[in-house]
Amino acid sequence: MKEDFLQYIWEHKKLPQAPLLTTEGKTVIIKDYGKLNLLSGPDFLYARIEINGQLWVGNVELHIRSSYWYAHHHETDPAYDNVILHVVWEDDIAVHRRDSTPIPALELKGLIKGDLLERYQKLFSDFSIKFINCEKEIATTNDFLLRHWMERLYFERLEQRTKIIFDLLEKLKFDWETVCFIMLAKGFGQAINSKSFFQMAQALDYSVARKLQGDATQLESVFFGMTGMLEEELPDIYHTKLREQYAYHKRKFGLNALSVPRAEFFKLRPSNFPTIRLSQLADLYSRNGALFNALMKADTYEELHLLLSCSASSYWEEHYTFGKPSRKVVKKLSPAFIDLLIINAVLPLKFCFARCHNAENHEEIIALISSIRAENNNIQQHFKRLGLSFENAMESQAILQLYHKYCKENRCLKCAVGVKLLSGK
Q: How much is the pLDDT for 128?
């Protein structure tokens, strides 16, 4: 038994119609269940409850056992002074407010029986051997409910991604171009080098990048130098050239890369080597003087792809690492990689920019994310085996949010699918 089951019962008004009694035998008539509190404090606010003929207006607190009131130290917290009813699964101890007045308790253990309890127990039985708790039922969920829930999950995931952007904006006094550069650099780093590229883009004053913007080689020298790839002397002409340029820029602009982790090659495919990705980033910024503004104005998938298209410099057409020639390949950013940049950097930036200007751009976001093909990873493959299909990136992003923030944490009663299954309708 978990507390969220009690919250579900109270929020969805699943108490039996028979007269309710406190553990002391007083009649309870619920006039208003109150409003779910998403912040700290009692679970439900502004409830209206008649107890033994007297109307009380205040808050409701829920616990599995009434003794949890003291385990959570509510007896010393003024936020709980206005609790008018303690709703518990099991009433194992009398509970009092700070002023020592008793709080009536409504015990649910003997009230909730039959199908609802069985469905709850079924949902959470043997979850240790399941991929997700509802794996046998999720494919039977109403398609309209599931698609609507997917959209909500996507925007929830988008909201979480924007926190880092708003933190950067506050730190950088709302310099959107700089924040865009930092977020794109992070995206170019992907999982392995996102921290290194992210820290590099922050440590490098973007005004320096602006001064060097007309020359991709100059940008490469700074990007490579600050991520630790020019520290050793190598018998390679291009490496030597970049190393000398970085030393000059380091002195001229006072560059400090002490906080930047060294870029990693381990576990990466050659096309994802930091040398290739940073060269592509340098090419992107050498050709776009005001990339953020252009990205914000672009309202189609095709426009965004055109803006983000870039290639590694000619040296990297025949190399993946310094001094080791390879078969000549033009190393353009792949469409799939551009899709990831749009998902992880551009759309969160668009969402933040609209919010900061009190604008609504949900429809634009939905249109763009729906234009991108669904991703394919182990989690999505698991859900496909359960009978779900993903038509676009909005749905594949939503399913990641569902799995990581609901399924893995057993938050089934906060999930639209779980609530539907529990209702039995």
A: 60
